[in-house]
Amino acid sequence: MRRDVFQAIADPTRREIISLLSTKSMNLNSVAEKFNISRPAISKHIKILNQCGLLRIKKYGRERYCDINLDKIKEVDEWLDPFRQMWEDRFNKLDEILNINKPKK
Prior knowledge:
Layout: H1 5-9, H2 12-21, E1 26-27, H3 28-33, H4 39-51, E2 55-60, E3 63-68, H5 70-100
Antiparallel strand pairs: 1-3, 2-3
């Protein structure tokens, strides 16, 4: 089952996992140690992130290591960019309106 990226990143725990893995690759136990939830719950979150392509799992001996799929993160960022620009433009216009209507001292 291929999962939707935006459903995956909607969960705060999964966003924290992405942030954690953004600096370095970690094994599953190391990731689980950073959270106050069960190891099976972390495994489920990692599975969802893996299914939607945001992270990869690689086996080294008996250990499984997770790392971020930067290509997929970049794809999401590029998709969001026009919306980011639209909101920046809207906030800039709002700033202009508020500054025009600001009482002068």
